[in-house]
Structure formats: structure tokens, C-alpha cells
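Sample entry (479 residues):
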Amino acid sequence: MQFKCNETLPERGTHIALKAAGGGCQRGDGTSCGIVSNSATTPGDMTERGCTYAGCRGVVGGPVKDAIQLTHGPIGCAFFSWGYRPHLADTDFHMKYTFVSDMKETNIVFGGEKKLLQSIIEANREFPEAKAVFVYNTCATALIGDDGRDVAKQAEEIIGKPVVFFECEGFKGVSQSMGHHVGNETIFRQLVGSIEPEGDFSRTINIVGDYNIKNDIRTFEYLFEALGLKIITRFTGNVGVDELRIMHKAALNVIHCQRSATYIADMMHDKYGTPAINVTLWGIKHMSQALRDTAKFFGLEAEAEEIIERELAKIQPKIDYYRERLKGKTVFIYQGGPRTWHWIELLRELGMETMTAATTFGHDDDYEKIFEQISEGAMMIDNPNVPEIEEILTKRRPDLFISGNKEKYLAYKLGVPFVNGHTYDTGPYAGFIGMVNFARDMDKALHAPIWGTLRNRARPAPAAHHSAHGFAHGFEEAD
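Predicted structure, serialized as C-alpha cells:
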């Protein structure tokens, strides 16, 4: 099993595997089962990954709605991290503005600490309503040795509010996954527990690892509230600084993204004894189980069943309609991390089958879950590069490609129906209501009239033979 594009990068074989007959594993290099993940990108590999700064600024810290989001580095780092993830909130301050120390060549030579301090003070003067300043370090300022942490302490004394410095320089880790570590640890160390409110917190939860992409929280928050629970903190979709400071008071952490936010839940358990459960908030089966598991912790099982029954009655006719139109379709899922294995079962609920599953920064446990869920003949691949994606689309020929902003143009050029699962072109996709939205968008993508026009009038991507299982084989398979 080889990709033609990897003839000069044989190392990529260790990152690719097929699920063989009987549940066995056939790895690209012909060795043992399992694939190599969370390792440094091979030089020459046209990786799709982001950097540590992207994971910290773009995923974890960026959604905090009432903090000044200030990048300490060149203007390009700030520009390319500004507003590309629609983590919505009830204010648009964090999406509308971005701040940067704007390091120039002379600052690189002579140092940028004074410029950073001035930037923090000026930003706070312009927007005094902000509850904190989040400062993100970049490669350039880390390499010249700026002491941003010391500057943050000075600035905090001057402006009288938290200045949180994230040591998230882009080269620090293998991928953006390291930025999740840095974001979780820094927020926990500098904000969580800094306020001790009074009151009864016996029926409270935190939603951990949801970033409110296209208002995802509106599809499931009301379900937890219907159980009689109060949500203290969302980490970090539609969250304020003061909510982060009291998140240690929650009786339970409900963890949605199990790659970007388990870290803060672990730290809260170690320091405060806060229990946690892992859930999936996409799909009917998973959303129902999330409500049941949360309700069980509080002794509210009967209430959960009533809510599930009521919600399913609302959406079942629409789900049945879309299932009839989507069943039998094959899918290539390529997402950042856990979202890939979150969605395999969701697609199966709609009669669809995942033929290729990939992540940008998944770890071994992510691929173990993917491998358990995919069917025989399906492929999993770690951190696929652009030529590999093109080869998968043209030779395995999935009916639908679910990926992100970077990949959609390639899919369109190759005539492959596409749904943006990263930032959603429409959405939201979580919860029971979101399941209907997701099915609707997949149906639109698959049945858009443009594909018939392309087949008839344009030169489509090369067709490939489809097996009885619906999988297209265009790879050399090892004995």
C-alpha cells in the first residue's frame, strides 16, 4: 500500500494503515499494526499542520470574548490568526479586533520588550472595558530572548488587571497540539481559582473543550439546563475572563474535545478534586449518552430520558428524510483531532460509511478509537499532506470530503462534494438540532446540480474502480 507521491518520502508509510479483513492492520511500510502519530513532520512533507501559536491563540485563548488578544511578534502572525475561526459569543469584541506589537527588523535587533509594554498599555487605554490582556509569544520574539512574562507582570501593575502571557512560540512543539497544552496550563495557572464566589454549586458543570463554532452551544446548553444544571464556565467558547476565574467551583467537568482541553480538567482534578466525564456532543447516539452520563452523576436519570424523548420526537422525521438520501455514501473525514472519531458513528447513523479517516495532530489514542470504528478496507492516515489528499480524492474517490478551510478548494477543483467540518460554512452541527443541520449540508453538497454539469462539460478527476464495499482501490496493496 503506497502513495505514488511518497516515492521520495518513504517515511510516510509509517503514518498510513488499512483495516484489513478480520480487523487486522496493514501499515504502509509493511510492518506492525498502528501508525506513527504526534511526531515531527518529515522535512520535505507539505504538511497541513499549524504551529503551537495557532493552537494557543486560535483555539484555546482566542474565543475568550472580553480579553484583548495581543500577539507579540510580526504583524503577519496576528493577521493570520484573526477571525478565521468563527467562535461566536454574545459580543464580537474578540472577533472584531486583533492587537499586535508589530515587531520590525530594528525591534528584532534591539529587542521588543519596551514595545510590548507600550502595546499593552495603549490597547488597554483604547479598550478599558476589557477584563484582561492575553499576550501570545511568537517565534521571532522567543528567538531574540524577549522576557514577555516579566513585561506582563510590569503591565499588570500599571493597568490593574490580569495580563496573561502565553509562551506559545510556534516552533515549540510538533504541531498546534502543543499550543493546547500551553493555553490550558497558562489559563489554569494564572486565572482559575483567583476568585472565590459564595453560593451553592452542587448542581453546576463546566462545558470543557467547546469553542462555540457557529453557535454550537445553542444546540446543547439548553439541554443541560433543562436537567436543572447551571453552566458556570464554557472552556472557552462564549466565555468571559471572570467565568474562567471561578470554573474551579463546578461540581463536574463535562469534556467535549478530548484532545485540546483534557489538560485543564486533569489539573482541576489534581488541585480541586473536580471529577470529569468524557462526552461527545455530536450525533443522536452520542448526545443522548452525554445527557445520560451527566444526569447519572447528579441522580437525574429520569429527567434525562424525558428530554431525550422530547428532542428526538422533534427531529426524527427530518433525520429519516436525510438518511434515505445519504445512505450508502462513502466519506473521507480529515479534521484536527478527535472530531474525526467523534463523527464516524454520527455518519453511520445516517447510513454513511467512512472510507478514509485522518487527523492533523491526533495522538495514538485518537487513532486507536478511529481504528475501532472504521470498517474493513478503510484507511487511516496521520497528518496527510496535500499530494496525499489529492491522491486519496482521485483514487479512492469518496462520495463526500469533510475537512476544513485549507482543503475545500482542492476538493472543488477535483469535483468532489465538500462540507466544511472545521469552521462550518453554515452550522451549528452539535446536539440534536445540529445533527439535522449537518445532514442537510451533506445532502446539499452531494446533490448540488454543479456535479452533473462538471461530469458532462468539464474534465473530472480520474475515475477509479469501486469495490463491492464502495471503496475505490488505487493503491498498491502489500502482500
